[in-house]
Amino acid sequence: MAINSDISTTDLMNWLEGRLTADDATDVARAVAQEPHLQATTKWLREFLRLSATTQLATPPPSIHRAPTEHFKEYARGLRGQGIIQTLRGLLTADSWQRLAPAGARHAATPAAPRQLVYSSPAADVALFIQANNENLDLIGQVFPLAAEELAAYTVQLSKDGRPLNMTPTDLVGKFSFSALKEDSYALVLTADNHEIVIDPLALSLRAES
Predict the structure, then answer these.
(1) Higher-pLDDT residue of 52, 76
(2) Domains, the chain, ranges and CATH?
(3) Global pTM?
């Protein structure tokens, strides 16, 4: 286990959820106690996990989404027109469903527990929480920049088969959400001033094959 500045958001998430060995957990706890930037990230993650476990999102009326969605579409198109966007692919580094069953075991599909995913890129880590909402799914996310600087604003676009479905900005601490989604495979594109993070495919399901 790497310590201090080499500890990633994935390491912190695994530590908070009790998935590390005793020795690795001790190393992470010691590093968090010594490093202010790790303390800040840990505070974000604790709040993210708390809200993810308790938040029930209501579906807002279409009129609430229409105006900001059009605004951010124009904003994103303007950035692309300047030719300054660097595309980064988000790499899946943690998936809470991976520990639903022993390795090699196969069972019938069973109702899935809420799913937590962490994607990493050179610019930021993206934590996602997927939970059931009746027969649909809610997607809650948060962006954690890797550089020790002010959190950049992102525009988050949800699409399917190359067709944009919805768009929202992140808030002051990098959070965003989409509610009442159907089971399917989607793509997320998180656009900042000089880069975009692409997460594709993102499979949303109410049941896990374990």
Answers:
(1) 52
(2) 4-54 (no CATH), 62-208 (2.60.40.10)
(3) 0.60
